[in-house]
Structure to design on (265 residues):
């Protein structure tokens, strides 16, 4: 089965979801991320969903579970890049992604992670793309 | 696909759901639905397709381009021959689930569409029809 790659950058893990995920792939990502947080001692997880054309209740639940699991493992999760049409649909569907931190783009997401984890100084160079 | 024509796809595996989402998206684009309306329709389709696969034990979806003389739209009909839903009213309530999900699938997809019809008979199966019209 195809798996979503997880990149490590300093104290953070980066995930960019670029494919139309089927359910098993979402479950595998949950497991892979938990394992990587523990193995690397990562303090933050950034999930870029800017390529996702829909977020249904299954993917919404996956994002919530990842945020919850990482919090328990002393890491913060931030979900970035949600398309406006996806945001409108998600709220109408009834999913508010309670407990999931979000940011508009990768840059703002990195800033949020650095602030939340108190790692501002060491990783100040990371995530600056423009 | 010309107006009033339809295609039918199986809903038995995770991959079928992904293929169905892509087929619904492309017909929604052909019909001229806005990006937000496409997204709502595909999201509703994803929820209902998953219900068909998991609770219905697999089934099919009919995807139709429809034209009522005034408006054009897309109609989707999900059908399975599973155990059926004993209490449809309860199943439509947000947060109600028998499968460990979030319980948003049925009620949520109803909110995302212009038309929603459900016909379920215990022991025989479930049929859900939704439609989204171009304003």
């Amino acid at each position: 089965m195809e798996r979503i790659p997880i990149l490590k950058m300093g104290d953070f893990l980066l995930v960019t979801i670029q494919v139309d995920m089927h359910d098993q792939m979402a479950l595998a990502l949950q497991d892979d991320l938990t394992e990587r947080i523990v193995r690397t001692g990562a303090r933050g997880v950034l999930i870029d969903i800017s390529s996702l054309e829909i977020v249904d209740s299954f993917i919404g639940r996956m994002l919530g579970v990842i945020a919850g699991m990482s919090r328990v493992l002393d890491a913060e999760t931030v979900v970035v890049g949600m398309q406006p049409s996806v945001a409108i649909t998600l709220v109408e569907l009834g999913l508010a992604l309670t407990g999931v931190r979000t940011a508009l783009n990768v840059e703002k997401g990195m800033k949020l992670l650095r602030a939340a984890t108190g790692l501002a100084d060491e990783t100040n160079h990371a995530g600056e793309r423009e | 696909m010309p107006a009033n024509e339809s295609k039918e796809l199986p809903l038995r595996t995770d991959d079928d759901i992904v293929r169905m989402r892509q087929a619904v998206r492309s017909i929604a684009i052909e019909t001229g639905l806005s990006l937000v309306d496409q997204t709502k329709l595909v999201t509703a389709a994803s929820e209902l397709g998953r219900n068909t696969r998991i609770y219905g034990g697999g089934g099919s979806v009919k995807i139709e381009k429809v034209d009522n003389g005034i408006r054009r739209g897309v109609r989707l009909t999900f059908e399975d021959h599973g155990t059926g839903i004993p209490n449809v009213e309860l199943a439509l309530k947000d947060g109600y689930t028998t499968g460990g999900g979030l319980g948003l699938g049925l009620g949520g997809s109803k909110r995302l569409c212009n038309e929603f019809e459900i016909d379920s008979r215990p022991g025989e199966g479930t049929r859900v029809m939704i439609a989204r019209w171009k304003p």
Summary: Helices of chain B lie at 14-31, 35-54, 88-91, 105-111. The longest helix of chain B spans residues 35-54.
